[in-house]
Write a structure and sequence with these properties.
This protein is α/β, with parallel strands linked by helices and about 220 residues long. It has 7 helices and 10 strands. The chain has helices spanning about 35-40, 60, 80-100, 115-125, 145-150, 180-190, 210-220, and strands at about 1-5, 10-15, 25, 50-55, 65, 75-80, 105-110, 130-135, 160-165, 195-200. The strands form 2 sheets. The protein has an 8-stranded mixed sheet, with helices on both faces. The chain has a two-stranded antiparallel ribbon with strand order 5-6. Strand 1 (about 1-5) and strand 2 (about 10-15) form a beta hairpin. Helix 1 crosses helix 7. The radius of gyration is 16 Å and the shape is globular. It starts with a strand and ends with a helix.
Length: about 220
């Protein structure tokens, strides 16, 4: 593993320095980077490199636009995704490639929860990524489905992986409880656009086996 500090972001790079391997960018909430990598190895993923980014301002840098907090004592979503995406594509990824000497065969973007939402949002804002993982993605985010249906991809994705826990729609919060209906609607849209896409329901709630769910998504996109 190689660890980089890029303007306050911790980037952990796993895998061979083979210049031709796919590079999967994973935005993480905490320190689950090594756990996700280990789960990928257990699943016998095809060879790839993983760059896991942490120290994110989660509710700001991964939210596409402003939205109120879900709970009284939580922070609001301040809509800094465009700024962070520019930093990711113009600064972080070039530093990763320069530091490791890699020239990836393609770039993929993966994330869990709000980072999964960000992964899909990025597909409508940049053409740098070709494959996407949205594991238990926050498709409940207000107006996101409407935005997806009213915009076109910058470049048609090679494939998209979507997943949820099978009890996430039973959340007590009314906004969170919409997650499955929105995810299924977006899934049907992508199928209609002839994009290779899968929607997988995993056992458990939003917080069940996040690293395993993320690894399953990474394995699927690598095998397409």
């Amino acid at each position: 593993m190689t660890t980089l500090d890029i303007e306050g972001k911790k980037v952990s790079v796993f895998g061979s320095e083979n210049a031709s391997l796919p590079l999967v960018i994973l935005n993480t909430y905490g320190n689950e980077d090594e756990e996700v990598w280990n789960e990928c190895q257990k699943l016998n993923c095809p060879p790839f490199c993983l760059a896991a980014i942490s120290n994110l301002d989660w509710n700001n840098e991964l939210s596409p636009w402003k939205s109120p907090a879900l709970y009284k004592n939580d922070g609001e979503f301040s809509g800094g995704a465009d700024v962070y995406l520019s930093f990711l594509t113009n600064k972080i990824i070039p530093v990763i490639c320069d530091s490791t000497g890699s020239k990836p065969s393609y770039l993929a973007l993966a994330g869990y929860s709000l980072a999964g939402l960000f992964a899909l949002y990025a597909a409508y804002k940049t053409d740098i990524f070709e494959r996407f993982v949205s594991a238990s993605g926050s498709m409940w985010f207000p107006s996101f489905e409407e935005s997806v249906k009213s915009h076109n991809f910058i470049k048609k994705p090679d494939c998209i992986y979507l997943s949820l826990g099978n009890t996430e729609a039973k959340a007590k919060n009314k906004v969170l409880a919409t997650v499955q209906e929105h995810t299924e609607s977006i899934f049907e849209l992508y199928k209609s656009l002839k994009i290779p896409v899968i929607f997988e329901l995993n056992k458990g709630n939003h917080f069940t086996e996040a690293a395993i769910r993320t690894a399953k998504g990474i394995k699927w996109i690598l095998e397409q």
